[in-house]
Amino acid sequence: MAYNTLTEEEKYVILNKGTERSFTGKFWDHKENGMYTCRQCNAELFPSNAKFDSGTGWPSFDDAVEGAVTEVPDADGRRIEIVCANCGGHLGHVFKGERMTEKSTRHCVNSISLDFIPKEQ
């Protein structure tokens, strides 16, 4: 399967499980209606109505498209990594039980791991 060409910075995060600096990504304060997709393979990941302001500086979502995101325990056992179920690209981490939303789930995602498709008016 052919994937999108990634920049060196995108490779660092998506392929090598890096993290972008908080409050620097293009989507942390993005409020448009639409669908967030995987930067590497274009799979639909997070609907914009699941996005909320967690105050962390990274895009945060309390829900994902069903079956689109896979949870993988980090090697240190302290956090749960989230990856694109389609291509395995690193997205960020998921935190549960924080009570920031009714679903009490926060998918904390690197903007650089995402693209966005605006909802047609």
Concise summary:
With 121 residues, the chain is mainly beta. The protein has one helix spanning 8-14, and strands at 34-38, 44-47, 51-52, 60-61, 69-73, 80-84, 90-96, 105-109, 114-118.
Return residue spans where pLDDT drops below 50 for at least 5 consecutive residues. none
Number of strands: 9
Biggest beta sheet attributes: 6 strands, antiparallel
Task: Name the CATH homologous superfamily.
Answer: Peptide methionine sulfoxide reductase
CATH C-level: Mainly Beta
User: What's the number of structural domains?
Assistant: 1
How would you state the average pLDDT, rounded? 95
* Outline: globular
Q: Which H/E pattern describes the elements?
A: HEEEEEEEEE
State Rg.
13 Å
Architecture in CATH?
A: Beta Complex
Give the end-to-end Cα distance, rounded to a whole number of Å.
32 Å
As laid out across the biggest beta sheet, the strand order is 3-4-8-7-6-5
What count of helical segments does DSSP give? 1
Structural class: mainly beta
Question: Helix proportion of residues, in percent?
Answer: under 10%
Strand content: 25-35%
CATH topology description: Metal Binding Protein, Guanine Nucleotide Exchange Factor, Chain A
Q: What descriptors fit this protein?
A:
six-stranded antiparallel beta sheet; Metal Binding Protein, Guanine Nucleotide Exchange Factor, Chain A; 9 strands; 121 residues; 1 helix; three-stranded antiparallel beta sheet; mainly beta; 33% strand
Describe this structure in words.
This protein has one helix at residues 8-14; strands at 34-38, 44-47, 51-52, 60-61, 69-73, 80-84, 90-96, 105-109, 114-118. With 121 residues, the chain is mainly β. The protein has a single domain (8-118), classed as Peptide methionine sulfoxide reductase (Metal Binding Protein, Guanine Nucleotide Exchange Factor, Chain A). It is globular.
